[in-house]
Amino acid sequence: MREYDEKDNLSNALTETLEGSATDILENCLDTIIDDDTLKKMPLIHSAVSLCKFGNELYKQFYIRKLYGFIKRLNDNIVDDEERKLHILQLKKDPKRANEELAYIAIAIERYLEQDKPAYLAKCYLAYLRKKISWNDLSMYSVLIDRLLLFDIQC
Q: Are residues 98 and 88 in contact, defined by beta-carbon separation less than 8 angstroms?
């Protein structure tokens, strides 16, 4: 039950902060192109907007699950609070670099088609934070994870 609550809280936090979604952009484009409210109510346009909203919601939920998998694996493998504080301190030392790294991680997670792959990336990221591998190694591993066929590992 606790895991569901964490997922739900993460989902709520992320969806509340996500702005400028593809659906919003599409609706804004339609609003600027089509000034007439009667055109917006046409079945074809209404259906297109509804499909975009549905697809966008599916995409967000899938991304949130992948992000949750990454964060959960990262947290599960951090041994104690002292190590957690050390990682936070490392990120705070150079906020610009931290933002670049976290943006890269977020994009890598977004690219993965399978929900299990972010957990592998979390292990690599933790190795990077522990200075066992370099950033270049982490970047290489993130691409390898993307191209990896999971059933090869599971056999």
A: no
Q: Which candidate, 145, 148, 91, 81, places its Cα nearest to that of 119? A: 145
Q: What is the pLDDT along the chain (155 residues), one digit of tens a residue?
A: 445 454 455 445 444 444 445 555 556 665 655 555 655 566 666 676 677 777 777 778 888 888 888 988 888 887 677 877 887 887 888 888 888 888 999 999 999 888 889 999 999 998 888 889 999 999 999 999 998 887 777 65
Q: Distance between CA atoms of 114 and 143, rounded to whole angstroms?
A: 14
Whether the Cβ atoms of residue 79 and residue 32 lie closer than 8 Å to each other = no
Alpha helices in 22-148 (DSSP H): 22-33, 37-40, 43-77, 81-93, 95-111, 117-129, 135-147
- Three-state DSSP class for 145? helix
- Which pTM value belongs to this model? 0.61
Place of tokens 């009667």: 38
106's CB contacts (< 8 A; 6+ apart) are 67
Integer Cα distance of 72 and 78 in angstroms: 10
